Amino acid sequence: MQISKNEFSILCFFLFFIIFIVLIDNSVEGKMGNKQTEKQKIKLTVVFNNISYSPELKTEWGYSCVIQTSKDTLLFDAGSNGKVLLSNISQLNIDPHSIKSVIISHAHWDHLGGLADFLQVNADVTVYIPNSFNRKIEKDIVKAGAKVVKVESFREITTNIFSLGELGEAIPEQSIAVRTSEGIVVITGCAHPGIVNIVKHARAIFSKEPIYLIMGGFHLRSYSSEKIKKIVKEIYELDVKYVAPSHCTGEKAIEIFEQIFGDNFIKSGVGKVIKIK
């Protein structure tokens, strides 16, 4: 069977088109991380909180969490007091020099206050800050010897760990997403843009993966019980499997989370360790 020159050209075009589509698909999958080939053990340790979990650790108002994978160690937020932060990190047998990246959720003192002391111990890090941070904060970080990356939109920080980008207008804030074998873990500092909005944003980005856990401060302590119940039910209906609220969530809201999520509620506070295989 013979084919004409024109038919051969059309066939070649379609072959090249299919190859191009496959290459683009692989490129996108590479940028987002390949969950099939890059599964990692994840260890999440709350190292700063105003809520106690391990009595031997110090509590002060604020939040900080260390994320450890088989490849990287990152610090999310730095609490309000650097001495307390470093003391708790030491007590938890985490080497501050193992931390290569620091992500600051927003510019409030209870998430940023401990950064200067941390950088005195380990300045060999890249600090990811929201794009809206003022120049003085950026200059202080660079002066301490660290590198600064300003984050505006969704981006990968390291393998399977992402910034969800800067959300909100009144108090811009970035949260992070950690891809695990069980699904996506969302960690928030104070959730000023709204915890429901953050979860919906994460779900839109990772549309083919479940939200396995949300943890951190959810900023519900000033809300009425009725409004809190509505928010918690909305999160429940978004098919979030586990919740570990703390910091600025508020005692009343934490109780409601426990009531609605039942066995899928995780008590959290400074010293809480969550391991995901």
What can you see in these coordinates?
Helix content is 34%, strand content 26%. The chain has 277 residues and is α/β, with parallel strands linked by helices. The chain has a single domain, classed as Metallo-beta-lactamase, Chain A, CATH 3.60.15.10. Strands 6-5-4-3-2-1-13 form a seven-stranded mixed sheet. A six-stranded mixed sheet has the order 7-8-9-10-11-12. Strand 2 and strand 3 (73-76) form a beta hairpin. Helix 2 packs across helix 4 and helix 7 (225-237) crosses helix 8.
Give me a quick take on this structure:
The protein is of the alpha/beta class. The protein is built from eight helices and 13 strands. It has a single domain (37-269), classed as Ribonuclease Z/Hydroxyacylglutathione hydrolase-like (Metallo-beta-lactamase, Chain A), CATH 3.60.15.
In terms of topology, how is this protein built?
Elements: H1 5-32, E1 42-49, E2 63-68, E3 73-76, H2 82-91, E4 101-103, H3 109-112, H4 115-121, E5 126-130, H5 135-143, E6 147-151, E7 155-158, E8 161-167, E9 173-180, E10 183-188, H6 195-205, E11 211-217, H7 225-237, E12 242-246, H8 251-261, E13 273-276
Parallel strand pairs: 3-4, 4-5, 5-6, 10-11, 11-12
Antiparallel strand pairs: 1-2, 1-13, 2-3, 7-8, 8-9, 9-10
Helix pairs in contact: 2-4, 7-8
Name a few traits of the molecule:
277 residues; alpha/beta; Metallo-beta-lactamase, Chain A; seven-stranded mixed β-sheet; six-stranded mixed β-sheet; 26% strand; globular
